[in-house]
Design a protein that fits this description.
The protein is α/β, with parallel strands linked by helices. It is built from eleven helices and eight strands. β7 and β8 form a beta hairpin. α3 crosses α11 and α8 crosses α9. The protein is globular and about 55 Å long.
Length: about 325
């Protein structure tokens, strides 16, 4: 019996190697084995950037997705974070191995990583979940925001509006897709008898839902969190009447402010190192930007320094 089936609660550790190019094969395999032995997801950032897409064939003789597959690490416990620079073969491998792609639209835009081929992933049968990535690459961590961005950004990837992501598809990615990514597809992700009560209750009389026509579309496109009244985590009420019950938000904010002042000195030292390394890093990015690739996930011409916009190929 897997660890997650023996223990209660929704908090756990997840093996999360940063990216293939930063890890040895032994480390990648060891963490994957740990995930499978304990029923954890295996989360890894792969082909988030054009640089990664260029580095894969140079380093491994194949894409990073194909390399993970060769190592036996592309399985149903594997969640690929971002998965932007995927070619048709990568997408086929993800579908065949029942792996997940976790789409982080706000982070992808803030970092200029590119536009993920969501429709191609969905049509291939790949499980897609939604995420926010870390606060350093997003600032916010709102799944409501992620649903809206995911829906709207597909309008930049295909001239056919019939292929754009719908609010209902984004909602499924944020709920059932996320549950599948977490290997909790039987515990959460839907409201059914026997599932854990992980619920958010919103005020249907809030402006976002007036007049009430399509609640899912209105939640995805019009709601930013103001109408949330009650939140239950595994059956426990943690927000009631809009008030957090499990923490003193005011005191927590003051504490974070104090920590921030202390970290400012260390941050200055870190930024000084980053400035010295920036020319090297920028050189790698610039070289990768002009390297030939069969796919394009940017709304601007990767081969030119100008700002002319064009549609990205799906």
């Amino acid at each position: 019996m897997r660890q997650q089936e023996r223990q209660g609660g929704l908090a756990r550790f997840i093996p999360n190697p940063s990216a293939p190019q930063r890890c040895t094969p032994a480390l990648l395999k060891g963490l994957h084995r740990l995930a499978e032995d304990h029923g954890f997801p295996y989360v890894i950032h792969v082909q988030e950037t054009r640089l990664q897409a260029v580095q894969g064939p140079r380093r491994y003789g194949r894409s990073m997705i194909a390399e993970l597959d060769r190592l036996g690490l592309l399985t149903d416990v594997t969640s690929i974070m971002h998965g932007i620079w995927l070619d048709p073969d990568d997408i086929r491998r993800l579908a065949d191995r029942r792996a997940t792609v976790v789409h982080n639209p706000a982070s992808n835009c803030k970092l200029g990583s590119g536009l993920a081929p969501l429709r191609a992933l969905v049509e291939a049968g790949v499980n897609v979940a939604l995420g926010c990535d870390g606060t350093s690459s997003n600032d916010g961590v709102s799944i409501l925001e992620a649903m809206k961005w995911a829906t709207l950004l597909t309008g930049l990837t295909d001239p056919d509006y019939r292929r754009w992501l719908t609010p209902h598809e984004a909602f499924r990615m944020a709920t059932a897709g996320g549950a599948r990514s977490a290997l909790w597809q039987k515990q959460v992700g839907a409201i059914e008898p026997g599932r854990r009560a992980d619920l958010v209750l919103v005020d249907r009389h809030a402006p976002a839902f007036a007049p009430l026509k399509d609640p899912v579309a209105q939640l995805v496109l019009a709601e930013a969190g103001q109408s949330i009244r009650t939140v239950l985590v595994d059956g426990r009420v943690v927000v009631e009447d809009g008030r957090v019950l499990t923490a003193d938000i005011g005191r927590a904010a003051e504490r974070v402010q104090e920590i921030g002042r202390r970290l400012a000195v260390e941050q200055g030292r870190t930024f000084a190192i980053a400035r010295r390394l920036e020319p090297l890093w920028r050189g790698m990015i610039d070289e990768a930007r002009t390297a030939p690739l069969a796919i394009d996930r940017l709304a601007w011409d990767a081969g030119k320094s100008g700002s002319g916009l064009r549609r990205s190929k799906s």
